[in-house]
Design a protein that fits this description.
This protein is of the alpha/beta class and 408 residues long. It is built from 12 helices and 12 strands. The chain binds 5'-O-[(R)-(carboxyoxy)(hydroxy)phosphoryl]adenosine (KG4) and zinc ion.
């Protein structure tokens, strides 16, 4: 089946088209036809995402991104001249009434495009910023009405987990259960125990800021643009290149940099699987106040120590959870999973490649393009949820709502 998926939970407008089919009794073939994404540079200088600003940008971007996805997939065909326009403009205008000018651009677009061979529409319904989510949901409802297609509501965080199923080689990785998912994004930091696909239990989460949020907030303090994670990571790598290595006490045997600047590893020995990153941000605030003017080297060192702190806490708690629940596979997802230092340390400490240690399991990260928000992970999740219950009818349009705090 071909699924068109829509993602607008934060500041990326993503529309993807996935061709997915069964290739055996329990094996599947996933083919990405399109994965169009438009980010919102408007947030760069604000250090974070303002929901109403994100909503407005999604409203402007969603139709061009939709058309790009259709073109990339080879599914963009104009209607022949005398083909009858069958869309119910009144209903569509009502569905899109909360989205400013979107009804006009939507109707213009949909009136000229011939309905392609698509079987269902998947859409993120939460968690995320509600005004932003609503743009995608309203768009999905309007499209479902215009093209008479079923709607598949998708949980964004499940999307981050299943994003690892699409690999560059095209082979779906084999997941052995129980599996553990470390979800690290701008809004979430969670350890999720997976008994099977669709069977999730959150065993730990952040009590305040998410890991990505900590990167973003520290970046802002260091006058770096949003999103801060990649910026901090670049500076940290620069510092590591020039410095000696020693051993991290919490992750015995893991070479770490001998930073003169020391920041806390919040809640590392709390004995549970929860996290807290707001103290780290405050520690950086006080540090910067005490240091006064800092030079480029100090900036790099602070970035390195922040990244070490976040990676160390995430890795330590992940290892503890792997031991406790006898985990067979580790899945890492969300924007922060693109962090190369996190990847390196987790692979070193948990990955299959190192011999002679008992804690060696399969570790999967999404490809770089699929680590941050995108439509393809929503399409993949929509597909697997659909084939689990293929007869299930899509919920009535009026039932489909944004839920900013949607859990597993
Ligand atoms: O999953 P995502 O795209 O959006 C949410 O669902 O929140 O994650 C965005 C977050 C941002 O906080 C960003 O700074 C962080 O992911 N991020 C990174 C890296 N790339 C993105 N954090 C650390 N290192 C990176 N390379
Ligand atoms: Zn996300």
């Amino acid at each position: 089946m071909k699924i068109l998926a829509i993602e607008t939970s934060c500041d990326d407008t993503g529309i993807a088209i996935l061709d997915a089919r069964k290739s055996g009794k329990s094996s599947h073939c996933l083919h990405m036809m399109a994965n169009a994404i438009q980010s919102q540079p408007i947030h760069t200088n604000y250090g974070g995402v303002f929901p109403m600003m994100a909503k407005r940008e999604h409203g402007k971007n969603i139709v061009p991104v939709f058309e790009k996805a259709l073109k990339d997939a080879g599914l963009y065909k104009l209607k022949i001249k005398n083909e009858k326009l069958k869309i119910d403009e009144v209903k569509i205008k009502k569905i899109l009434s909360r989205e400013n000018d979107l009804s006009e651009t939507f109707i213009n677009s949909i009136s000229k495009i011939a309905k392609p061979k698509i079987d269902a529409i998947a859409v993120t319904v939460g968690p995320g910023l509600e005004p932003a989510l609503w743009v995608g949901i309203s768009f999905a409802k309007a499209l479902s009405l215009a093209w008479d297609l079923p709607l598949l509501p998708v949980n964004h965080m499940e999307g981050h987990i299943l994003s690892i199923l699409m690999t560059d080689e095209g082979k779906i990785p084999e997941i052995q259960f129980p599996a553990l998912s470390l979800l690290v994004s701008g809004g979430h930091t969670e350890l999720v125990l997976m008994k099977d696909f669709g069977k999730y239990k959150v065993i730990g989460q952040t009590r305040d800021d998410a890991a990505g949020e900590a990167f973003d907030k520290v970046a802002r303090m260091l006058s770096l643009p949003y999103p801060g994670g990649p910026e901090i990571s670049k500076l940290a790598a620069g510092h590591r290149k020039n410095s000696n290595t020693s051993t991290s006490p919490a992750l015995a045997g893991t070479p770490q940099e001998e930073n003169i600047i020391k920041l806390p590893r919040p809640m590392i020995h709390s004995g549970d699987f929860d996290f807290s990153f707001s103290g780290l941000k405050t520690a950086v605030l006080y540090l910067l106040r005490d240091l006064g003017d800092i030079n480029d080297e100090q900036k790099k060192e602070i970035a390195c120590e922040v990244e070490d702190s976040i990676v160390e806490v995430l890795t330590y708690k992940t290892i503890k959870a792997i031991e406790k629940y006898k985990i067979q596979t580790l899945i890492v997802g969300g924007g922060v999973s693109a962090n190369t230092h996190l990847q390196k340390i987790l692979r070193e400490k948990v990955g299959l490649k190192i011999k002679n240690e008992k804690l060696k399991i399969k570790v999967y990260f999404p490809t770089k393009k699929l680590s941050t928000d995108n439509g393809l992970m929503i399409a993949i999740t929509g597909y697997f949820n659909y084939i689990k219950k293929p007869t299930k009818k899509s919920p009535p349009l009026s039932k489909l709502k944004a839920n900013g705090n949607l859990g597993f």
